[in-house]
Every structure is written in C-alpha cells, then in structure tokens.
Amino acid sequence: MKRHDAALAQLVDQTYLDLEYRTPGGAARAPVPFVEDGGVLYTQAALDFGGVRWLKAAPQVRVAGRAAPHAAWLEGRARLAWEAEAERAEALLRRKYGGRRVWWSRLWNRLRGREVAVVAVHL
Q1: How many CB atoms neighbour CB 111 within 10 A?
Q2: The model's pTM
C-alpha cells in the first residue's frame, strides 16, 4: 500500500498524465489534464474520444506521470463520473488549470458537436 501511495503522491504533482486504455485494436495512450480527489483521479474527455467509447467494455487503464519518462505505471479502473463528483472534479480542474483553459476546452468541444464527460480513475 505504501508503494501505491508514494506513486500516487508523485502523480499529484504532475501537470499531465499519460492514460493508457484498451481498444479492440490494442492499447492506446493519451496525455490528459487531471486532478486527484480522495485517491481518485479525474479527467475530462469528449464522449466520442476513443478511450471513453471503450470504457464499458474494457475499464482497465494504466496511468503514469507525463514529466518523468521512466515513471512507474499504475493499474486502475475507469468509469464515467457521477453527476455530483463530476461537478466537484470540474471545479478542481478549473482551480488547477485555470477557468479559462477549462472554458476553452468546453467551448472547443461544443463547437465541434462533442459532449464532454468527466472520467474517474480508481487506482
């Protein structure tokens, strides 16, 4: 458990996270902005984003800090966040990255006709 806590503590200081998820074609990776709350990692993604589409079929994911090239990968399970925790996660994302960045991301996706969801990753 201590190793897991130490790895999570290293992730919290990162700006972005590498998120690896499974698709029918194999594994895919994406750099994502994230926040941690209560041991759960939260990120935003468009619902038609590859990883979100396959979430129900293959919720197993791996995460690692983006700044450290040889960072340890942590195994986890991802799911769409519930409404109340999604609101809290969005507030934390605004605090960490600035409201303008989150607002632009939402606007960009809305203009492209994409709905955005909050994804919760349990390690």
Answers
A1: 8
A2: 0.86
Give 2-122's CATH code, choosing from 2.30.110.10, 3.30.499.10, 2.30.42.10, 3.20.20.140.
2.30.110.10
Domain map (residue ranges) of the chain: 2-122
Question: For residue 20, is pLDDT > 50?
Answer: yes
pLDDT at 107 over 70: yes
* Structure-block tokens of residue 61: 């994911």
Q: pLDDT tens, 109-122?
A: 778 887 788 999 99
Minimal CA–CA distance to 65: which of 123, 16, 1? 16
Say if residues 84 and 2 touch (Cβ distance below 8 Å). Answer: no
Residue indicated by tokens 């038609």: 48
